[in-house]
Specification:
eight-stranded mixed β-sheet, single chain
């Protein structure tokens, strides 16, 4: 996936397994992205395409199972994911787990990616590691994650804002431990 300039537009968010959660994410992500790609197997109850607004992100709804769409995902800047479960009515997919997050990450830019989530369907300890103050480096994905110093939705919506960037050869050298003499 090609790297994206940090100021290039449009910036996109991806919200898999969104169910009927359409309006509030548009308000939460206003100013961060210009478009949100919602993806679910069914259209939300009473679905009508939201009107374009200069103050809210545009909406693109993909009526598909994420397993059939994930490889077609365009470049995204934000993964927004909440309120999913493995119970009845939930996706039963561990989007924040090894299998699915590992397939979503290649669609992020090299720097300044965001994951905004309540930790739904984590399926592993990855989420807990990403929100530790020291963050988390996953070498197999070539990515670093850390909690953003700015957490605007943690108190009001229990949503964590997690920053992400790829590990490059240059960044490996920058964080390599100093030799001991």
């Amino acid at each position: 996936m090609a790297a994206q300039s940090i100021n290039a537009l449009p910036k996109r968010a991806f919200y898999p397994c969104c169910a009927n959660d359409i309006d509030e994410p548009r308000h939460l992500l206003a100013g961060l992205v210009e478009e949100i790609i919602y993806c679910d197997r069914h259209f939300p109850h009473g679905w009508t395409q939201p009107k374009s607004s200069s103050s809210l992100p545009d909406v693109r709804f993909i009526k598909r199972d994420i397993r059939d769409y994930i490889d077609r995902l365009p470049l995204i800047d934000v993964l927004f994911y909440r309120r999913d479960s493995t119970g009845e009515g939930g996706s039963r997919l561990y989007i924040l787990g090894k299998q699915w997050l590992g397939r979503i990450l290649p669609h992020f830019p090299d720097e300044r990616g965001l994951i905004i989530t309540d930790g739904s369907n984590r399926g592993s300890s990855i989420f807990k590691k990403m929100i530790r103050p020291s963050g988390y480096t996953r070498e197999s994905w070539g990515c670093q994650f850390w909690p953003s110093p700015d957490q605007p939705w943690l108190e009001t919506h229990r949503l964590y804002k997690i920053e992400m960037k790829r590990i490059t050869a240059q960044s490996r050298v920058a964080v390599a431990p100093l030799p001991r003499y």
